[in-house]
User: Which sequence fits this backbone?
């Protein structure tokens, strides 16, 4: 997925989230750099075989996650969009 070409300031503190992770329903994830954050978001991409309408809606959620590097409140908005995407299937 291509992210908008925005310049983000370096965070003074890492972004810390409590989020589901492999083999555990809750893990503390730490992101020191924007590249770490992008890598985590890229890992959430849906399979290209998923219908376009669902996949594109889910990519909107990932864009909100991407912008959450600046404002953590956008994670909740991204979650809401991500949860509505499967309803289009």
Assistant:
């Amino acid at each position: 997925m291509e992210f908008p070409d925005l310049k983000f300031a370096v965070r003074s503190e890492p972004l810390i989230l409590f989020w589901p992770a492999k083999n555990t329903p809750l893990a503390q994830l730490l992101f020191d750099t924007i590249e770490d954050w992008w890598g985590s978001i890229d890992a959430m991409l849906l399979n290209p075989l998923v219908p376009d309408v669902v996949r594109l809606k889910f990519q909107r959620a990932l864009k909100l996650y991407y912008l959450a590097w600046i404002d953590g409140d956008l994670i909740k908005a991204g979650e809401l969009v991500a949860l509505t995407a499967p309803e289009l299937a």
